[in-house]
Amino acid sequence: MSRGDASACARCKIDTSSRACQEDSGQGPRSCPTLHQKPVLDRALKELDKPEIYEFARQASIQEAEGYGDRDRGYDRVRPIKPRILETIEFARRMHYRKLGLVFCMGLRREAQAVEGLLTDHGFEVISAICKIGRVPKEKIGIQEEEKIRIGEFESMCNPIAQALVLNEAKTEFNIVMGLCVGHDSLFLQYAEAPCTVLAVKDRVLGHNPLAAVYTLDSYYRSLK
Fold first, then answer.
1. Where do the domains of the chain lie?
2. Phi, psi (5° rounding) for residue 14?
3. What are the two backbone dihedrals, phi and then psi, of residue 60, each rounded to the nearest 5 degrees?
4. Are 132 and 159 in contact (CB under 8 A)?
């Protein structure tokens, strides 16, 4: 597949109301997967033949819609009514999950304590794992002294694989990710066996709101371009 044919939805210039992914007679460029990658889309639909995948997708779609109020008044009048933490709780209930995993960064330990308490109050069993479990020195992965945060001191490496394996061992049914570092979150998601959702992502500068930099690319964060 050439670069011109590869999916590039982020570069699509067609109005949302006229896109092939929205309208039966919609349009799309050469890079439009809806129009030009039918075999791939067919494979994706084939996955829905699996009962557990079908039900997961169905409940996720219902949860999406129920995050909006006033749907009976028309699409232009709908309004968001639920924060993500509530949607996470509701979705876990829809799927009849009882045992939830919670992985979090040391820097979000207070938030994790609050979330775990909330989930417990709603009747879930919570298995939680902090990023530093195992107390493995960063030297184990070849980190030099000048590459540490605490130079000249012992420093535990983040251990996302261990976090995943601890939750796998406990046979969690659904995992919630809170504030793992870039890359560490990737390893956790790679090794976790249960389905996962992200409640919060880490952004040390922007109070865990990374889109603030994206929203201000033409002003305060123009230096990033």
1. 31-82, 83-225
2. -75, 140
3. -65, -40
4. yes
At position 103, the amino acid (one-letter code) is: V
φ, ψ of residue 151 to 5 degrees: the values are -65, 130
Top-level class of domain 83-225:
alpha beta
Torsion of CA 150, 156, 160, 163, to 10 degrees: -140
Tens digits of residue pLDDT in 20-53:
999 999 999 999 999 999 999 999 999 999 999 9
Tokens standing for residue 104: 């979090």
**Is the distance from CB of 139 to CB of 165 less than 8 angstroms?**
no
Q: pTM of the predicted model, to two decimals?
A: 0.93
Provide the token pair at 63: 């949860």
Per-residue model confidence as pLDDT tens digits over 148-205: 999 999 999 999 999 999 999 999 999 999 999 999 999 999 999 999 999 999 999 9
- Residue pair 71/82 in contact (Cβ under 8 Å)? The answer is no
Q: Is 80 helix (H, G, I), strand (E, B) or coil?
A: strand
